[in-house]
Design goal:
2 domains, 6-stranded antiparallel sheet, 284 residues, Jelly Rolls, 5-stranded antiparallel sheet, Immunoglobulin-like
Length: 284
């Protein structure tokens, strides 16, 4: 019988330029960095002249340019993944990240997109909960929305990071590439859960770990609310709606049945009039 396990959090940080908002999210501005590499402004990439695997690309999804990242053979049988990362000042808690992209994924390889945020030294959104995998080829631009979940519901971040990795670190394959454009965020819930006793709706956090095979999601509403709960796969595709109804105030248990889902990583997003929360789980 399939069971659900909560996905453990990991942390991955790097240092790059800080900016008040997501800088150059459409990759329109390019410049030579201190080492003479032609990179999107405010972004740090794996290009190291003469070994270059991040390029300005046209046509773009929007505007004039996009960014292309590719794996690259550097001799000795080693293939270097393509990487781009940016760290920026942010006080936002988005619940969704949308990335417009085209991809070519070699057999056995994958593309990963990471999001994380923190305040001082405290992780708020961890890479382990916000890592998104692309393992299929998309010959045209597709805008895919990924859900973002948080380790802590009562903290506002001061810094966020986006990282794009094209190819597995140790087993990258020649031929994997990504063209990316227009990275945007939505579903901001700043302050919604700052104090549970003041919110008009609360998604309870104290469900069993691991979850029971019934997959019960407990929801407690202080006021009446429309509640929508949906399940997404690791590619951000909606695979199931498990609740879409009006609920009276009080405690409600909603069954999250996973018997029909293939093994893998999933998210559920619970959204009401005054809350929006996303959590990751594993079907094993």
């Amino acid at each position: 019988m399939k069971t659900l396990l909560l996905f453990s959090a990991l942390c991955f940080l790097s240092i790059t330029t800080l900016k008040a908002q997501v800088p150059n999210n459409g990759f329109e501005d390019w410049e030579n960095d201190l080492d003479g590499n032609w990179n999107p402004k405010f972004w740090t990439t794996s290009s190291s002249t003469p070994d270059t695997n991040v390029f300005q690309y046209t046509p773009a999804y929007a505007g004039n340019y996009s960014m292309q990242l590719s794996t690259m053979s550097v001799g000795g049988g080693f293939v270097l993944p393509g990487m781009a990362t940016i760290t920026y000042l942010s006080n936002d808690r988005p619940t969704q990240m949308t990335v417009c992209m085209q991809s070519t994924v070699a057999t056995g390889d994958q593309i990963l997109i990471y999001y994380s945020s923190w305040r001082n030294d405290t992780i708020i959104a961890a890479v382990g909960d916000c890592s998104f995998h692309i393992d299929s080829t998309m010959s045209q631009f597709n805008c895919i929305t990924f859900p973002i979940s948080y380790l802590r519901d009562v903290m506002i971040p001061d810094t966020a990071q986006i990282m794009i990795l094209v190819g597995n670190f140790s087993t990258a394959q020649v031929g994997t590439s990504l063209i990316v454009d227009d990275i945007t965020f939505s579903g901001f819930n700043n302050g919604i859960n700052e104090a549970e006793n003041n919110s008009s709706a609360t998604l309870l956090q104290n469900y069993p770990n691991p979850l029971s095979t019934l997959g019960v999601i407990p929801i407690s509403l202080i006021q009446n609310s429309n509640v929508v709960i949906k399940i997404f796969d690791m590619h951000g595709r909606e695979v199931k709606t498990i609740a879409d109804k009006f609920m009276t105030s009080g405690h409600h248990n909603i069954n999250l049945s996973v018997n029909e889902l293939p093994k893998g990583f999933y998210y559920y997003n619970a959204k009401g009039e005054n809350f929006n929360l996303t959590k990751k789980f594993i079907v094993d």
